[in-house]
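Appendix B. Extra example for self-study. Work through it before the problem class; the solution is given directly after the inputs so you can check yourself.
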Amino acid sequence: MSVSDHVDFNQFIEGVKKRNPGQLEFVQAVQEVAEDIFDYIGDKVEYHEYQILRRIAEPDRVVSFRVCWEDDNGNIRVQRGWRVQNNNAIGPYKGGIRFHPSVTESVLKFLAFEQTFKNSLTGLPMGGGKGGSNFNPKGKSDHDVMRFCQSFMTELYRHVGADVDVPAGDIGVGGREIGYMFGQYKRITNQFTGVLTGKGLEYGGSLIRTEATGYGTVYFLQDMLERVGDSIDGKNCVVSGSGNVATYAAEKINQLGGKVLTLSDSGGFIHDPAGIDAEKLAWVKELKEVRRGRIEEYAKEFKGAEFHEGERPWVVPCDLALPCATQNELSGDEARALVKNGCLGVAEGANMPTDLDGINAFKEARILYAPSKAANAGGVAISGLEMSQNSARVSWREQELQDHLVEIMRGIHDRCVEYGGTAGDEHIDYVRGANIAGFVKVADAMLAYGVV
Ligand code: NDP
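Solution. Structure tokens for the complete assembly:
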């Protein structure tokens, strides 16, 4: 069989669109990866013959289920839950759970697909999965959230397990939700195993898991800057989001001498020209994690700060930008505005925050641009180490884990450089590097298994 017998890129994407009608986010994610992979496997017959990319772009399974629960007022509520198990060629499925009204099967399929490449990039033995529900935890009491989580796990427990599929947190799922779900899993199965990561330290959690995604994103940015003889020190940084990833990314930027100018939530963004220092950041964490308030309150609390309702922060001139809220929060026009205003580096803390037009704008401008599957892999990497600690029934020390995180992020950076460079050109295409480096390991494992 020759390579020319196989479908080309356009035919492949048309097929993906046809098989996944209306699943725009999933098609977008596959398209972004497939462009680079088609280029790479052009002369590699085996990958075509065994339909490797087509198989990675078809989840192993998608489980969809009803989640019924009773709210504080005695009303019966019905939500939908999912677990997408995309690929377990190199390890048990692994990926977060998202609770947000915008969650659909398409969103979870895109996230599980991306997770497959991200987990491979970490160098740890983890396959790709993702799950969640259209449940909105915002404004709900702790008891509402507990009853929802228990009902969600009462179905999910059949599909997960320490050697099968190990979920973690994501948007709307933090320590509180993981605690409720782990408690229910333990109650139903009578087993204390590492079935979830992001657990509390008292019951098998790992130090620095909470910080790992945000810190790791900044380490990756630092690695890219170091390669071109620069650093974060003294740079103005624009950050979106105000949740787990955004606040710890902001914390690490401050520690490395940068200045954080913005944070946001779904209501708009705040701009503080004086910088969001450690003290102000502690206030934001308390606002979001304890009081569960809105970011607009920041502008009332701190003099000189402004709130921009319904807007995104990419209009603020900066040296570095870190989208850390959600998917498709940075458009082509916004990417061009960032470049025009002198932005020299972008590291994605959120998953797929930049749309395809925006990615192309960054690529054309040849700025330092780290895609999410590389830049935000620190969280799942420490989750992988939480699994190791659970299996061995040990807890590693903080410094040991910090060292691992720095080393893993540098390893991902170097793999991107290996596959994303072009002879005679100093510039690195980190998108291509991450896509190909993530693909190769999964693809070769799949080849070893034959047709399964
Ligand atoms: P959180 O729930 O802690 O925070 C999410 C933040 O994003 C909130 O500020 C939220 O604002 C904002 N947000 C959510 N949806 C929208 C929207 N449609 N428009 C504008 N802002 C929005 O989640 P995380 O910080 O954990 O996750 C953020 C991103 O990072 C996601 O893309 C996630 O997949 C990714 N990620 C997270 C990892 C982790 O370890 N937590 C690991 C790897 C990736 P509001 O409160 O108004 O909704």
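Self-check: The longest strand covers residues 76-87. If your reasoning did not lead you there, revisit section 3.
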